[in-house]
Design a protein that fits this description.
Helix content: 40-55%
Radius of gyration: 13 Å
Structural class: mainly alpha
Strand content: under 5%
Number of helices: 3
Number of strands: 0
Number of domains: 1
Distance between the termini: 20 Å
Order of helices and strands: HHH
Largest sheet: none
Shape: elongated
């Protein structure tokens, strides 16, 4: 099993949270279930872990 240690910095997390919220709001405004895609960046921002970053070996977290 892979560990979910944080690999995202604060700026990265803030940007993802904003993007996630914007996507969700557009989904609600336009009555589209595609707004649910906004949950992905919102959840990754919340937990501080991005599975794609893990695969690519990227870390934006300086203190990690």
């Amino acid at each position: 099993m892979t560990s979910m240690e944080k690999n995202m910095g604060n700026a990265d997390r803030a940007i993802r949270a904003v993007i996630g919220i914007v996507i969700i709001v557009f989904g609600v405004i336009y009555h589209s279930w595609l707004g649910a895609i906004g949950l992905i960046p919102l959840i990754t921002a919340g937990v501080g872990f991005c599975p794609l970053y893990k695969v690519l070996g990227i870390r934006t977290c300086k203190e990690c």
